[in-house]
Amino acid sequence: MVYLIFLASMLVDLDHLLATPIFVEERCSINFHPLHSYIAIGFYTAGLYFKKVRILCIALLFHMFTDYLDCLL
After folding, report:
1. Which long-range contacts (CB under 8 A, 24 or more apart) does 61-70 make?
2. For residues 71 and 1, what is the distance between their CA atoms, to the nearest angstrom?
3. pTM for the model
4. Which CA distances in Å does 53 have to 10, 17, 59, 60?
């Protein structure tokens, strides 16, 4: 079940469809797309305190971390 939740966390990338153009190789996702914003990351962090959404929030924060690594490289 945890595996499926981590896979489902990739749906957060659907907010890339709101950008024009949809993909720019040099663009950093963090704080550009709505579900990758610092405010959203704050909600994901706050969700760690609630047992029902903890795994999802861990998955989303891991997703944000990997996107941030893409920004650095």
Report:
1. 62/6, 62/9, 63/9, 63/10, 63/12, 64/30, 64/36, 67/28, 67/29, 67/30, 67/36, 68/30, 70/28, 70/29
2. 30
3. 0.90
4. 16, 25, 10, 10
Q: HEC states along 13-34?
A: HHHHHHCCCCCCCCCCCCCCCH
| Closest of 48, 49, 65 to residue 57, by C-alpha | 48
Residue 63 and residue 73: Cα distance in Å, rounded?
Answer: 16
d(CA 69, CA 73): 6
pLDDT digits (tens, 9 = 90+) for 29-50: 999 999 999 999 999 999 999 9
Are the beta carbons of 12 and 60 closer than 8 angstroms?
A: yes
